[in-house]
Amino acid sequence: MNEHKKKYGWTDKGIVGMLLAPLGFIFLTLGTLFWYYKVGNNPSDPQIFLYVFGGIGGCLFLVGMALLLADLYRRMLQRRAYESGFYVMAKIADVQRQRNININGRNPYKVECHYTDPATGILHVYYSRYLYTNVEGLFLSDQVPVYIDRENDRTGFVDIDAVLPDIQVHR
Questions:
Q1: Terminal C-alpha separation, the chain
Q2: 8 Å CB contact between 21 and 69
Q3: CA–CA dist 150, 121 (Å, integer)
Q4: Whole-angstrom Cα distance, residue 7 to residue 59?
Q5: CA nearest to 32, candidates 55, 66, 16
Q6: 44 and 91 inside one domain
Q7: pTM
Q8: Residue 148 lies in a domain
């Protein structure tokens, strides 16, 4: 059986973390090297380099790693929910353009899905990963499988690929 590899997608937090963590590490390393090799004309210059470069670098590195690790944790939870095999069928409610995110001059889309738990009557709203093509009107069904962690129904993986045809974008 030829199973396609599932795409869990990165969120905007993970992408920002991927940028900030290496940048912060570079600044932290530069500040430490400038301090170690006593770069500067005045005796206080190495400390200033350490405080400015190292301080900014340390902050950027910590924030970047926190964002990156949080997104990796989210992806791990989604993978675990998918691999558990328990899913519900959620109704596709909306395709939303993410205007606050701009990647290569384009805004990605997210699919919003609704599922009402028959036992409790609670409406659960789940979102797909970012899609870089407007998929409105391309769905093969009006319901999509959402893989849910049985222990935590807040974690869900929307298997949007199950209700979309194969899409090839040519530029």
A1: 32
A2: no
A3: 17
A4: 31
A5: 55
A6: no
A7: 0.81
A8: yes
Token couple for 2: 């030829």
Claim to verify: residue 118 and residue 68 sit in the same structural domain: no
How many whole angstroms separate alpha carbon 98 and alpha carbon 108? Answer: 6
Residue 131 sits in the same domain as residue 74? no
Residue labelled with tokens 């701009």:
102
The tokens 């069928």 sit on which residue? 89
Strand partners, 35: none
User: Alpha carbon 19 to chain centroid distance?
Assistant: 13
Whose tokens are 């090799």? That residue is 37
What does the pLDDT look like over 28-61, one tens digit per residue?
Answer: 999 999 888 888 777 777 788 888 889 999 999 9
The structure tokens listed for 66 are 């926190």
Angle CA 84–87–90, to nearest 5: 155
β-partners of residue 96 are: 110
Closest CA to 63 of 10, 16, 101, 12: 16
Q: Which residue has the tokens 């499988």?
A: 145
Residues 63 and 108 both lie in one domain: no
Given a cut of 70, the residues of the chain with pLDDT beneath it are 1-4
